[in-house]
Write the structure tokens for this entry.
Amino acid sequence: MAPKGKVGTKGKKQIYEENESTLKFYTRVILGANAIYAAVNFFVFYSSSTFWTWLLLLFALAVYVGSYRSMSAMAKPAFAEDGSLLDGGIDLNMEQGMAEHLKDVILLTAIVQVLSTISSYFWYLWLLAPARALHLLWVNFLGPWFMAESPSAPEEVTEKKQRRQERRQTKRF
């Protein structure tokens, strides 16, 4: 059963602290996935590392940097001159926000990167990200736009209908 009453709002300080812990968690995820990938591919299987191993690592790093920097820019707090918190930044844990999609991209990249230590074919799972983006684009923007009913042409007003409308308007006034 859903709680009754007004949904509670978060304060600036709570948002600031949760954003810090969220960013710390995703830093650990990124470092952990890269450590596993580097340990397996560059220490255990160094002799079989190819150009693609390095290129896909650079791709993953670019995704991590872009997503993490976007999240940290969104969560940037504002402080007053005396050091008091003015604004805690955008809530990174808010549902249906851009940060939710950025967190999903980081997690998808980390999972794919770790799984790719088993087989390089797991990198194809990263195609789920553009597929999800296209799905969201269709559901939220393109689909409703294409499927919207065209405005129907106004009915032709016959003389009889026009006289009836004029009589109704005169009765109102």
Remarks:
- The first strand starts at residue 78 and ends at 79.
- The beta strands are 78-79, 85-87.
- The chain is about 65% helix and 5% strand.
